[in-house]
Amino acid sequence: MTASGTECELAAAALCPGVGSGQLLLLDEPLSFWGGTDRRTGMIIDAHHPQHGTSIAGRVLLMDASRGSSSSSSVLAEQLRAGVGPAAILLTARDAIVALGALAAAELYGTAMPLAMLDAGAAATLRTVAGPMPIVSVTARADGTAAVVLQPPSIPRQTKDPS
Amino acid sequence: MTTPGPVLTAEEAAMLRGDSGPGVAMAMRMVVALAGVLGAERLMPVTGAHIDSCLYHGQAGLDFAEKLASLGARVAVPTTLNSSSLDLMHPGLVRLPPEDAVPARALMDAYRALGARPTWTCAPYQSAERPAFGENVAWAESNAIVFANSVLGARTERYGDFIDICAAITGRVPHAGLHLDEHRLPTLELDCSALSTAMLGEEAVWAALGDVVGRLSGSGVPLLTGIDPASVDEDRLKALGATAASSGGVALFHVAGVTPEALTPGPGWAALPSTPVTSAMLRAARDELSTVADPSAPLDAVALGTPHFSVREFEKLAAALAGTRPFHPGCTVWINTSREVLAQAREAGLVQAAEERGARIVADTCTYITPILAPEERTVMTPSGKWAWYAPMNIGVDVVFGTLAECLASARAGRVVRDDSQWN
């Protein structure tokens, strides 16, 4: 925790390098990007998903893993191309389908959406967040390390004593 | 902590550096990056590939294939192509709007330019050339993956979009997953000894069994025991695997005494957690795979051939149709297959009986992944667990799941006809 008491940093492992920040979106169940999200808008359209009707665009997703078809890689890459993809994705498992979507978009368009893996404890910490979702910044480095920093969105931060 | 990357051989390092051209280098960057994601310590060679990336899902997929082609990449191993978004043999059949049809066609052309064979089928294992036991390949598409691993005893991880073509170009995959002995052993037993031999005479029952297997196994490796080897054929294992890969993440199953890695009992089998599978569970799966609220409503269509119909399935269909009247004019029977199987079935005279009764043939693609059915075809019956699983979401139809005999009787009547004796 920092001196202000409002920031919190979690260690993570980098799966795909990049830097991104956005409002946290906790996904209660694994998501299939193919069939479960709109490739043109980033909206979650799977009627059975708890976050149905929410957009993933610009958000930092926390999900255990993806689900279903490997066509999800193409849909994620297309959303990143169109600017309606997530700002970052945090997983708890090594998910090849999500990683390949991020890697292909990086190869084609230079997007560098960070993909990082949290351990169970860090993921559980994030899942206890209640009320307004904080802004989360994710930095995933080529050396395999990653940092996940949380900031509350609306609570004014304490002004630091200038002395 | 993630390993920064795998250790490469001199040849692999040269490919990554660009010695074989920028297209190979791009493909190798993807393979090496995936190896890092999976924590693989090295790469390994593959001798064949099956590509699913040729189905259109937006501009990014087309950009990727065209970039590889423009950089001069070519596949390094024999490579087949999965079902696409279009039926090139029956122009006008697919109702895709031009803004999707034009790039979908360009995507197919890009994969041909990369050197892949235009097979356009989700059942490459029904071709004469298929992987041998123990052969390491890079196959994509969940039903093809589970068939290759389980029925052929070939070895493939769950490959998908982007990595399938990169593996074909480099001839390499991460040394990980189902390529390794330790990940191919069964993790749970499903005891099927309570299922009657009569019941297991129907492909759709095997699809219902697949639905149960997928739900009980997740992404584990199930061992099915108590099945009479005489009741098994490749079409039934195809139906089982395709549905288990839809309702769960099954990429490898074993059938004791039947599939090549389960011909004799393994040392760990006795200690596996075991769950009995009952006929009541299969009937419950049948009902869950059906979305129709009013079973007396008119039936608009029947969907056969998901995964693509085999020559033997055309033969079984022709036999089932002998001496029967034409299908109801308000009910279209659609049969998906590959251009290769269609040519063989036509040559053998096995397609005529269905076409004379009003059936329509779809090649190169499939009725659940692209708009082919007319807007008024709202209620569709199928013996395919995979079609039943995905079609309501993909093309917005209501589904009735049943056996082939139930589907054909229903197609003649123009309404759903059930025969519960097949489900006991």
Automatic annotation (TrEMBL), chain A:
Q: Which Pfam families match?
A: AcnX_swivel_put (PF01989)
Q: What SUPFAM superfamilies does this protein map onto?
A: LeuD/IlvD-like (SSF52016)
> Residues in domain Phosphomevalonate dehydratase small subunit-like?
31-105
Which key words tag this protein in UniProt?
Answer: Lyase
| Source species, domain of life | Bacteria
* Transcription regulation recorded as keyword: no
Is the Cytoplasm keyword given for this protein?
no
Record's PANTHER family? DUF521 DOMAIN PROTEIN (AFU_ORTHOLOGUE AFUA_6G00490)
The name under which this protein is listed is DUF126 domain-containing protein
From what organism does this protein derive? Arthrobacter silviterrae
